[in-house]
Write a structure and sequence with these properties.
The protein is mainly β and about 130 residues long. Helices cover about 5% and strands about 50% of the residues. It is built from 1 helix and 13 strands; from the N terminus they run βββαββββββββββ. The strands form 3 sheets. Strands 2, 4, 5, 6, 9, 12 and 13 form a 7-stranded mixed sheet that branches. It has a 4-stranded antiparallel sheet with strand order 1-3-8-7. The longest helix is centred in the first third of the chain and has 4 residues. It is globular. It starts with a strand and ends with a strand.
Length: about 130
């Protein structure tokens, strides 16, 4: 039912690029706010980017703004995270998550861990200097 499958992780050099994908079931994708989070070893999970699939409105964490791009393919129920100009500090497990943008009487779609009900297993990204 609430299924998210990430792919595309791997290892690379600083300055390089990588594209992650997150394939969702019909049910999960209908939740219309999709986001990427990441967790580096020994650190708390942090939000990276979010997209409202209804209008493709996007928001980004300051740490990735201008380097990462979140996008969607509604025909494939898939969200992507294009990472460019990678830095060693981008090394982390990357997770895809989904929530309904409209909950509790308000609209919200940002990469903050509030009411994201569905999570993928994660895909590891390693960037070396």
């Amino acid at each position: 039912q609430g299924q998210l499958v990430e792919a595309g992780g791997g290892s690379g050099q600083a300055g390089g690029s990588l594209r992650l994908s997150c394939a969702a079931s019909d049910y999960t994708y209908s939740h219309n706010c999709m986001a990427w989070f990441r967790q580096a070893r020994g650190k708390q999970r942090e939000g990276v980017a979010a997209i409202y699939t209804g209008t493709a409105q996007t928001t980004y964490a300051d740490s990735v703004k201008g380097r990462f791009t979140i996008s969607q393919d509604n025909a494939k129920n898939t969200v992507y995270l294009q990472m460019s100009s990678q830095k060693p500090e981008d090394t982390a497990m990357y997770y895809c998550a989904a929530r309904s943008a409209s909950l509790h009487g308000s609209w919200f779609c940002q990469p903050r861990e509030i009411d994201f009900a569905y999570w993928g297993q994660g895909t590891l990204v390693t960037v070396s200097s």
